[in-house]
């Protein structure tokens, strides 16, 4: 029984659920994106509740805005999602992952692509331009100009590490 002193192993699945693990791995297998980022984003965006709608109008597991989902559809030759389809996990994970993957390919560091996902590409472009490429995670985090976005990025990066390591080991034991 592996106990890392963070949480008892028996509670790990409660704090870091992984209900769409297989779907995420299936979708991410077609991309360059590490599936643990998708899982971390879902944890922070919706806590895996597929029916969540934000006050800004983002919907589903990955909390996509309708305009972003339309862009993803256009860029990838996919059909536009109806309002109800945002709540179907297969659609939310596919469209959200395609968007996240495009941001990950666009930016030089995970902190920047996560900031772009949360605050928008214009803000992320500004922060990346001001700081320049080749910096470490702490420098990028310190340079994110919105406290809410900085906190979001920190949480997703931690979630990603946990899903990539501890949860992987937990689910394969």
Strand content: under 5%
Which ranges are low-confidence, i.e. pLDDT below 50, for 5 or more consecutive residues?
none
Helix content: 55-70%
Instruction: Name the average pLDDT.
Output: 89
Category from helices, strands and their pairing:
mainly alpha
Shape: globular
How many helices does DSSP assign? 10
Distance between the termini: 9 Å
Report on the biggest sheet. Answer: none
The overall strand count is 0
Rg is 16 Å
Q: N-to-C SSE series? A: HHHHHHHHHH
Give an overview of the whole structure:
The chain is mainly α. It is built from ten helices and no strands. It has helices spanning 9-15, 21-28, 35-46, 66-76, 89-106, 110-119, 121-131, 137-143, 147-164, 166-172. Helix 5 crosses helix 6 (110-119). The radius of gyration is 16 Å and the shape is globular. The model has no long low-confidence stretch (mean pLDDT 89).
List keywords for this structure.
173 residues; mainly alpha; 10 helices; globular
Outline the fold blueprint:
Layout: H1 9-15, H2 21-28, H3 35-46, H4 66-76, H5 89-106, H6 110-119, H7 121-131, H8 137-143, H9 147-164, H10 166-172
Helix pairs in contact: 2-5, 3-9, 4-5, 5-6, 6-7, 6-9
Question: Short summary of the structure?
Answer:
The protein is 63% helix and 0% strand.
């Amino acid at each position: 029984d592996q106990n890392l002193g963070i949480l008892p192993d028996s509670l790990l699945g409660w704090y870091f659920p992984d209900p769409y693990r297989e779907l995420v791995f299936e979708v991410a297998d077609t991309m360059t994106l590490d599936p643990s980022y998708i899982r971390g984003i879902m944890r922070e965006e919706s806590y895996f509740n597929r029916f969540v709608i934000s006050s800004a109008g983002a919907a589903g597991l990955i909390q996509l805005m309708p305009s972003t989902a339309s862009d993803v559809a256009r860029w990838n030759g996919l059909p536009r999602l109806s309002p109800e389809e945002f709540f179907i996990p297969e659609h939310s994970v596919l469209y959200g992952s395609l968007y996240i993957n495009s941001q990950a390919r666009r930016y030089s560091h995970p902190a920047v692509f996560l900031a772009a996902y949360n605050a928008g590409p214009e803000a992320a472009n500004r922060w990346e331009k001001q700081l320049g490429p080749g910096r470490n995670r702490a420098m990028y985090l310190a340079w994110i100009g919105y406290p809410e976005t900085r906190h979001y990025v920190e949480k997703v990066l931690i979630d990603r590490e946990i899903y990539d390591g501890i949860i992987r080991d937990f689910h394969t034991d």
